[in-house]
Please model this.
Amino acid sequence: MRKKIIAANWKMNKDINETSEFVYAFRDEMKSYDGTAEVIICPPFIALDAAAELLRESPFILGAQNLHYENDGAFTGEVSARMLKSVGVSYVIVGHSERRQFFGDTDEVVAKKVKKALSSDLNVILCVGESLAERDGGVTEKVLERQIKAALEGLTPKDLPSLVVAYEPIWAIGTGRNATPQQAEDAHAFIRRTVAGMFGKEVADSLTIQYGGSVKPENAAELLSQPDVDGALVGGASLKADSFAKIVKSSSR
Ligand code: PEP
Model:
């Protein structure tokens, strides 16, 4: 049985007060939840400490949206794995397309971040996904294979239980246009085959692969019902406690 994981990526949204308002409301919404999905909340850096405190007595897990691959030093504005661990972070998102697009996170940088996070005992949500031009050009699988191989090269099967892959087609992020369940399933099955080729079938079969890209309460259940879709990475719809709770609940149907 693969772990189902639903994660909230708040991006550059919510200060400390808004974070605490969300956590109180979300805990309330989830009071009667008896499903098995793991729930991860990834606030901005400045709210991690407050969120850790608020989530302490809850089953929900704290994640961060980025890290630097060095331990410390002259890297103004950056945050290391060790620092994330010190505030109680368990998961970190690596390789989000917004980081790749706006902040120079190349495949090489992504690989360094993955390795640093895993060697620091952080779990990783590795994001991969093609642009619209790449999908239209018929190179979706080529792009996914390149991103997966670059990010995971040098890891061993022992590292894989600490890794989650999020398939996030760039054209579906923040656009309101989600991949169809079949498009998501095809990409997830391809990612699983690629990981099987690198680390073996058993490892690939237990890998959680999330879908991300305009997941909403209205489309979550159908996307999550696909055999290779093991969870969701949610941006916009994770900013409201009630819509995020509805998405988590639809993972158990
Ligand atoms: C994301 O940023 O990871 C994401 C999937 O965003 P949205 O749900 O808003 O498309």
